Amino acid sequence: MPVAEPINIQPKRILVITLRFLGDTLLTTPLIRSLKQAYPDAAIDVLTFKANAAMLEGNPDISALIPLNGKPSASAFAKLLISLFRRYDLAVSTQAGDRPVLCAILAGKLSLGFVDAAAGKAWWKKWLLNRWLVFREDYDHAVLENLRFCDLLGIQRHYLLTPPKTSAPLPEYPVKPYAVLHIMPQWRYKEWHSEGWTRIIEFLHQRGIGIVLTGSQQPNEMQALAEFRQTLAIDVVSLAGRLTLAQLTELIVNAELFVGPDTGITHLAAATGTLTFAIYGPTDPKKWAPWPLGYAEDVAPFLSVGSQRVGNVHLIQGQHESGCVPCQLEGCERHRDSDSACLDGLPANQVIDTILSSLSS
């Protein structure tokens, strides 16, 4: 795509489209902040999945949320497109998929979006979008990918993630100091072993730090956490399934530290500024590591390989003798319920030593 002059526009209504996972929703908030700072009088709406909408609760840059209840049928999607038709001066799709791009094309008088790198898939999107960017799957961090739209508009980039906010009290306030452990990712291939989590709990308990377990309301996750708690010789508090994301944010803000796997909640923890220990395996940190609070550079905060610290985030990466990490695949068996040898082989001592070093300093 040839280099073009930035778009000169003063939109009154803006639509941002984010139709992926929970963490991706949070990673769009720097773009939303950038748009609001550039166009303070504009009303910014966000089209997202209903399951992810809580990640944007209380966001001061957003006027309204348009929640989708899962992947809509063809007829329901057609009704959505009709309802959005030309309602916005500017519409931005933060994904290259057909449906989010089509929403941007029909909703915005000016439409921006990502297109697939494969030339054969993108021809109609390039033709119908007013401006487009090639989505670079393995090139740069997702936050920086989204902020490339600022360059098309000629506006300043803002790098701060905005966690959800609420005035609702927590159902239970743990005794300080405490650590938040979010041990269950959405998929098996991102899980660390239960022995490692047990060792961390014992280590923190010995240092006088209480343990709070968090998790979703998914029945399989609740059952797994209940079974895990039964194996512990130490009393822990479990708030799994009892908190909104905004309440979880408050819990993490007041914690001594947070430990979690490659999941949207670990991204949330990093955004609060709390000391965050992220346990990663197959996923490439350069693209998908938690974004540290206060980081504001146009290069990814983390490298693809190695355990590293940037700001409030310690990234602890499992390894494999084959040198395959990060493979960017869904585990060793290439599906979401697969094991990941790099995580199964990550010793508890490596994580504990990283926590100990940080607490000691």
CATH topology of the largest domain: Rossmann fold
Number of helices: 13
Helix/strand/pairing category: alpha/beta
Unreliable residue stretches = none
Distance between the termini: 49 Å
Overview of the structural elements:
- The structure is a single chain.
- The radius of gyration is 21 Å and the shape is globular.
- A seven-stranded mixed sheet has the order 9-8-7-10-11-13-12, sandwiched between helices. A six-stranded parallel sheet has the order 3-2-1-4-5-6.
- The longest helix is centred in the middle third of the chain and has 13 residues, at 194-206.
- Helix 10 links the parallel strand 10 (257-261) and strand 11 (276-280).
- 45% of the residues are buried.
- The chain has two domains: 13-153, Glycogen Phosphorylase B (Rossmann fold), CATH 3.40.50; 178-360, Glycogen Phosphorylase B (Rossmann fold, 3-Layer(aba) Sandwich).
- With 361 residues, it is of the alpha/beta class.
- It contains 13 helices and 13 strands.
Helix/strand layout:
Blueprint: E1 13-18, H1 22-27, H2 29-38, E2 43-49, E3 64-68, H3 74-84, E4 88-93, H4 98-107, E5 108-115, H5 123-128, E6 131-134, H6 142-153, E7 178-181, H7 194-206, E8 210-213, H8 219-230, E9 237-238, H9 245-253, E10 257-261, H10 264-272, E11 276-280, H11 285-288, E12 308-310, E13 313-317, H12 341-344, H13 348-360
Parallel strand pairs: 1-2, 1-4, 2-3, 4-5, 5-6, 7-8, 7-10, 8-9, 10-11, 11-13
Antiparallel strand pairs: 12-13
Helix pairs in contact: 2-6, 3-4, 7-13
